[in-house]
Amino acid sequence: MSLALGPTAQLALPLQCAGWQRFVKCAEKCTDMLLPSREVDFAAFIQSVTFCIIITGFYGVDPGTLSPVDVAFMTSALNHHSDGILRQTPHYPGELYAMRERVCRWVGGERASQALETILPAYESMWRLAAVTLAYANGNQHMHNAFLDFSENPTQRQFRSFKVKNTRPSVEAIINEVLRLHPPVQRIARKSRHPLWKRIFYPAQEIADVEAVHRSCVYGTRLETFDAMRFHPQHERPVEMQLLAFGHGGLSCVAEEWAPMATALIVAKIMDRVDDAFDARMYRNTRTGWDGWAVRKKEKGRDS
Ligand code: HEM
């Protein structure tokens, strides 16, 4: 995916109830802290909130100690880093040093290297999943309401419950459908398992195209259409096969169980605080396709 991570890049994700409640508080604080009263760039805002929630939620950093300027520096450096990987250009060492210096300050020297290895894949996938979900829910009253219910009652039960007598999707189904159509990691790679003598005839790596698999008929009909109800168990052809968005087998993402609900929470808290009025064009490139998108803080006492 990105930085070369060892199998030790594990962390105690706040899955337990108390941990989850603290994570909810972090999400609220970070959203409020980074939302100015004027209109603000959509992608930059989602990136800052996501980064802030990761660093405060995973590492117990107090949101009040993060300066928005440092947060903006980190998101921009992480974006450069991901661009560098895509274009296969090395990272600018000064920037890497400056990132490490900030992370050391927030989480302490011993945890800094491991923290950076976790922050990057978490940030890169979660901000884009959050952004695309917000884009789909924008202007759709049912999806909007499902997220507002989840913001008010952020429990696993609420996350999973289908709405309006099972005719409208749950937050979980919406997130699954976004992951199906726009998996943040589009390809996964494995070392080729051909016997040694055959290896000169085959590439060293085998690549699975996650995006293409997700548009295959195992996932039902009208595969290019956003239809979160395909994940309902009583749908005419319910989706039985698991998504590949978190990879597969022993090397699959460590946050597979946790990240969908955590990202949904980010979306829910943002939706609760901003006006439902972004630019309505939706681009296929979920890293760079957000030019012209903006969000505005909700006026007090008015729900959109
Ligand atoms: C929307 C959320 C996320 C998606 C879609 C996602 C997806 C993926 C995928 C596809 C892989 C490669 C798996 C394979 O090769 O089979 C991966 C690896 C990984 N993910 Fe995630 N991930 C997400 C969130 C997170 C979060 C929140 C964390 C941190 C807690 C995380 C940490 C990692 C790590 C450490 C690896 C292995 C190292 C690497 O390849 O960079 N991911 N993820």
From TrEMBL:
<dbReference type="GO" id="GO:0004497">
    <property type="term" value="F:monooxygenase activity"/>
</dbReference>
<dbReference type="InterPro" id="IPR036396">
    <property type="entry name" value="Cyt_P450_sf"/>
</dbReference>
<protein>
    <recommendedName>
        <fullName>Cytochrome P450</fullName>
    </recommendedName>
</protein>
<dbReference type="GO" id="GO:0005506">
    <property type="term" value="F:iron ion binding"/>
</dbReference>
<dbReference type="GO" id="GO:0016705">
    <property type="term" value="F:oxidoreductase activity, acting on paired donors, with incorporation or reduction of molecular oxygen"/>
</dbReference>
<dbReference type="GO" id="GO:0020037">
    <property type="term" value="F:heme binding"/>
</dbReference>
